[in-house]
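Sequence, please.
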């Protein structure tokens, strides 16, 4: 007998070879009817699969979260059957589950069109209504190869040949139709349900190889119920409205063209935004103790062989062979270059941790079909940093990195952060003791965040464990951005060392750290998260000054000059167009603040202010608008410094203030106010005495008439 343990901790004895269907039936008729699959020791399996040893088993019903992946997987198979039923001779290739849906790649002479999706959906509903069971067979390689070759399914023959010898060749039937598949599947096609939608068609090369056949890819989504489907489709519509590629054109941020696929042509506005991000990061990193460096983009291929990147990234690297016959590579990442900087000069344990950072331009080849605006490019800038430290410093440094990452994300408006922890894989370098210490360090970080996190068991790199930081945006999409990775391998491979307290050479631990990941991609995420309505400090054009009639062009130019002198990004619109037209145009370009000036504003030295996304209009004095916008346009880190200094200054200041009854002395340092003095002289003398006792300082004297006088007191020492 074998012992089956259930999620609630209860267990039962069964004969070896018992199936999930048998177990469900032994529990209740209701569960047997609802069951669609099972999870054995955490892995999804067919309900009909036999269980031969003790195991933890969960019977999965269609409403369980685990079933969603199966619904989508089955929907992909149903779609493939529908396509071949409608267009005989179409070859099927692969059809995986992806985030929020699935796709299937087909080969036929004429690519599919969006107009044909409705016909495919209708056929899918027919197949689902037949409720045909999914059944699994294991075939020999020869049988699978011969069968698919006879059917004219050349791509399937390639897939059969690629299956490792130690793996079964599994075939899943749904009625007369069958497919090569690892599984698992639900009990029958009827469990797919009716909450699905085919969303788009695209082209894709077989195996991602541009020298191979172009396939026609059909994307779809499937959910447990129509309510979830409707919510997802609404999100897709909103995502389309927020598409950074469209907004990038409307805001004149950037463009792409055929002469440089996957490389960004930055316009003035986009480059200004890009530089704003770099300036912000530069300040934050400097405050955190990082030294900014810069390493060559082109380096000898031998360095990349030593680091291991030449083997891992061979297909993604750009190579050059100049006349001296040495082969050079454009860097796909910054790590090896940073090790070279660390190696330049003898390092002591007293020099650690050493923190270096770079806004490094890297190049990685991506198939043309995979390129997607700023989100997937071939040339991009990484905010890479590396911390060289001792094993004893790992925990402290990881905690600092984590705090920095979360603080920076918050400044950019992201509070909903998902953290994933990837621990040791089976194949790895380093002793278990060192891995224990590194994993404990990262677990300490996770506990310190107080946030939920998930474990990617065995998914760490061979050289160390890592944390991945995923942002959830305004419409619920997830974007993996930041990483914190412990590396025991690369410094040693590249000959880095420091002299320890024992006088011997030791290999440092290397912490890889990125926050944005790719600045280009993060900028795209920001555009979509805010739908172009960027915070004022990030906006490349912060204010536009518009005239109602040309008579007041001079005042508009003066307003713009005043704002520009205060450090704001400003432009004027003096065209002979109706003001409503100007407002609509600049709103479409996502300019955050529109100032309108006419005769009244010029006479009173005011402006009429409108905010992006609001119909409200407010007329305010120009000086107040300048002061308010300057404060609002400060980057979050600078604003914190300003507010802290302002609070400190206020706390230390002495104010002599005229009131109706006389004068009052306010002592900010002690939070005290004096009694009312009848004369100004008495109040000023009291303020002077306080400053003398304090060792000097500044007092202000303010009258009811609005006059202000500063009084300085210095004590000779």
């Amino acid at each position: 007998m074998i012992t089956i343990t259930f999620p609630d901790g209860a267990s039962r004895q069964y004969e070896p070879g018992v199936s999930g269907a048998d177990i469900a039936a032994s529990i209740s008729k209701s569960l047997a009817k609802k069951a669609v699959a099972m999870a054995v020791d955490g892995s999804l399996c067919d309900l009909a699969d036999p269980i031969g040893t003790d195991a933890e088993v969960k019977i999965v019903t269609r409403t369980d979260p685990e079933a969603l992946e199966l619904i989508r997987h089955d929907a992909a198979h149903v779609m493939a059957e529908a396509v071949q039923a409608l267009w005989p001779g179409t070859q099927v290739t692969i059809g995986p589950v992806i985030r929020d849906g699935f796709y299937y790649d087909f080969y036929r002479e004429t690519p599919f069109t969006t107009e044909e999706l409705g016909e495919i959906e209708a056929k899918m509903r027919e197949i689902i209504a037949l409720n045909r069971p999914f059944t699994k067979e294991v075939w020999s390689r020869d049988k699978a190869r011969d069968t698919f070759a006879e059917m004219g399914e050349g791509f399937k023959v390639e897939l059969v040949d690629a299956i490792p010898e130690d793996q079964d060749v599994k075939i899943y039937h749904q009625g007369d139709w069958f497919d090569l598949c690892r599984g698992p599947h639900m009990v029958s096609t009827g469990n797919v349900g009716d909450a699905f939608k085919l969303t788009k068609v695209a082209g894709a090369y077989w195996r991602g190889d541009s020298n191979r056949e172009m396939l026609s890819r059909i994307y779809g989504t499937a959910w447990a119920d129509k309510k979830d489907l409707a919510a997802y489709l609404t999100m897709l519509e909103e995502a389309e409205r927020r598409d950074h590629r469209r907004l990038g054109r409307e805001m004149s941020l950037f463009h792409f063209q055929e002469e440089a696929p996957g490389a960004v042509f930055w316009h003035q506005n986009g480059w200004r935004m890009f530089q704003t991000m770099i300036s912000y990061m530069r300040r934050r990193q400097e405050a955190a103790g990082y030294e900014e460096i810069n390493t060559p983009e082109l380096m000898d291929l031998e360095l990349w062989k030593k680091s291991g990147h030449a083997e891992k990234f061979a297909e993604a690297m750009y190579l050059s062979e100049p006349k001296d016959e040495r082969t050079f590579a454009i860097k796909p990442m910054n790590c090896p270059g940073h090790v070279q900087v660390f190696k330049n000069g003898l390092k002591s344990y007293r020099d650690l941790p050493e923190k270096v950072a770079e806004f490094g331009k890297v190049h990685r080849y991506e198939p043309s079909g995979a390129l997607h605006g700023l989100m997937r490019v071939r040339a991009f800038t990484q905010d890479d940093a590396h911390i060289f430290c001792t094993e004893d410093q790992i925990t402290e440094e990881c905690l600092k990195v984590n705090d920095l990452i979360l603080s920076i994300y918050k400044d950019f408006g992201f509070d909903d952060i998902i953290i994933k922890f990837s621990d040791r894989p089976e194949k790895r370098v380093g002793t278990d003791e060192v891995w224990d210490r590194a994993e404990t360090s990262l677990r300490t970080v996770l506990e310190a965040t107080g946030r939920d996190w998930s474990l990617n068991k065995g998914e760490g790199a061979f050289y160390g464990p890592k944390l991945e930081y995923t942002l959830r945006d305004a419409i619920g999409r997830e974007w993996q951005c930041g990483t914190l990775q412990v590396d025991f391998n690369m410094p040693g491979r590249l000959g880095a060392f420091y002299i320890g307290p024992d006088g011997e050479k030791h290999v440092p631990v290397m912490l890889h750290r990125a926050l944005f990941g790719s600045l280009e991609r993060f900028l795209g995420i920001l555009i979509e998260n805010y739908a172009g309505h960027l915070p004022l400090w990030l906006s490349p054009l912060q204010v536009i000054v518009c005239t109602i009639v040309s008579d007041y062009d001079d005042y508009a130019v003066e307003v713009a000059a005043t704002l520009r002198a205060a450090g704001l990004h400003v432009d004027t619109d003096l065209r002979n167009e109706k003001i409503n037209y100007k407002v609509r145009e600049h709103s479409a370009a996502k300019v955050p603040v529109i100032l309108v000036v006419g005769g009244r504003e010029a006479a009173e030295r005011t402006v009429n202010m409108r905010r992006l996304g609001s119909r409200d209009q407010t007329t305010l004095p120009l000086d107040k608008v300048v002061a308010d916008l300057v404060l609002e346009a400060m980057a979050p880190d600078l604003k914190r410094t300003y507010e802290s200094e302002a609070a400190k200054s206020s706390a230390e200041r002495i104010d002599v203030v005229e009131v109706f009854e006389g004068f009052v002395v306010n002592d900010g340092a002690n939070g005290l106010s004096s009694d009312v003095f009848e004369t100004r002289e008495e109040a000023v003398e009291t303020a002077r005495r306080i400053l003398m006792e304090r060792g000097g300082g500044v007092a202000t004297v303010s009258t009811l008439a609005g006059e202000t006088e500063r009084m300085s007191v210095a004590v000779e020492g």
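The mean pLDDT is 92.
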